[in-house]
Amino acid sequence: MTTADSSLPAWFPLKKASQHAGEFSLFFFRFLKEAVRPPFEGRVFLQQCFKVGNKSLGLVAITAFIMGLVLTLQTRPSLAGFGAESLLPGMVCVSVIREIGPVITAVICAGKISSRIGAELGSMKVTEQIDAMEVSAINPFHYLVVTRVLATTCMVPLLVIFADAISIFSSFLAYNIHGDITITRFFDMALSKLEWIDIFPSIIKSIFFGTAIGIIGCYKGFRVAGGTASVGTAANAAVVTASLVIFFIDMIVVQITDIL
Predict the structure, then answer these.
(1) Could you say which of 21, 44, 75, 218 would form a disulfide bridge with 145 (CB–CB 3.0 to 4.6 Å)?
(2) Cis peptide leading into residue 77 (ω within 30°)
(3) Where are the domains of the chain?
């Protein structure tokens, strides 16, 4: 430990964490205020929706396909041992829609989207493009942050729904490796086990996941200071922080759902 490090008080990390939490809270409340203030950047919002949704579609589809396939192949022997193989479609469907689909898809999006936003805004901050926008009487927060966060908030739930459908379909394919069932019968058995309490929390937390992914990526990008090396640090920090927040949000929603 260096002399400079040893001279720091023991509570310094706590003070630094509290400072970051305060700055992030101010950043988030500013987003809420700017989001309802006109003018609305509709064209930029649609461009960001395309970047978030279309460019993440392939990765989400592959991940969801493997997820449903593996879950079915791993679970089938256990259920078959108890003579409950007919419960497999419903079990996979409920597991994917309630928990696995939203969380895994959000983590994938955090790695791809939050890092891209952090690096993109960080590069603009380092090259003083954001300062140039302010000089040109353009509100960079409204133009850059609000559009990106709203895009992730809207598109991540749609990606989760898409991933759920792909996972259930791949489960059908895995089921037919050792069995013989029509796709109509499989989906009927799967969806018959779903209830409103399974679907509603999944949609709600997917919306929160999308907001967290966007706001954390923007926050890390806007706080970049120094040279280009800090851009990579911001992108990495955005991924790690967004992933942790996703699991924290999931824990809270699961607890609330359990109470209800």
Answers:
(1) 218
(2) no
(3) 27-259
